[in-house]
Specification:
The protein has helices spanning 22-32, 36-53, 125-137, 170-180, 186-203, 225-235, 237-247, 265-271; strands spanning 3-9, 14-20, 62-69, 75-81, 85-91, 100-107, 114-119, 141-150, 153-164, 213-215, 218-219, 250-254, 259-263. With 272 residues, it is of the alpha+beta class. Helix 1 crosses helix 2. The N and C termini lie far apart (43 Å).
Length: 272
Amino acid sequence: MNKLYKTLIYDREVSLSVLDTKELVNAAIKVHNLNDVSARMLGGLLTACAYMAGCLKSEKGAVSITVKSGDGSATASVSGDINGHIRGYIDGAENGLKGGTMTVIKEDGLFRPFVGTSELKCEDISENLMQYFHISEQVATAVAIGVSVENGECLAAGGVVMQLLPGTSEENMDRAENAMQDFVDICKVLKECGADGIMQKYFSSVTEEKAIYLTFPEYKCNCSRKKIEGVIKSLGKKEAMDIVAERGKVEVHCHYCNTDYAFGEEDIEELF
């Protein structure tokens, strides 16, 4: 089961998140029939998105992360909401990403969406995410995210993320930095412990049980035939019928869940 633990540690000056997203990645592999390289890359982004979605406050909160290679040959995009519904897709990245950018859009249902962009430092999602937080949000963040995939199956996925809150003492900065050394090989730790074991083995002495927030992210797309009907209605009947006359039907493909929706002439007549 996918899990996201969130709590405050070290005199409540450091935010801690611990994730297990193995089933999330396996769901993505199944939906998109991913090879191992693409599964590791998309799995890392899905894990990062699960973390960011878990930090949202508003009932209408949503977040998306899009990565594009420098030459435009590959794209990966993930999105999630406050309910822990995470989804994503990847295109053209079978051999990895060579340079490029990462763009994060956060909507907390209050004002304009926050948009932050940073260059990809390397192919490691942990390094890229730390750079993003440093450049775009100016928040000191330590990230250890890992995904282990072999022969089309995710064996371990998840991570540990720590963020320093304003006013963190130097002593607690050092404690957080030292603690992150235990997660240099995060996939190995996840295979041995899982998220439950990490919380128990590494953080039981610095957390308050009643102050630990646990959620269960899942791979779930928010699309539906009803929503697609709304998109078609926005086209207007004439344009929709013109498409049917030219192509035989109106087709809409959802990249996130790899689902095709088709509407024939009778469907369009009924809609309008």
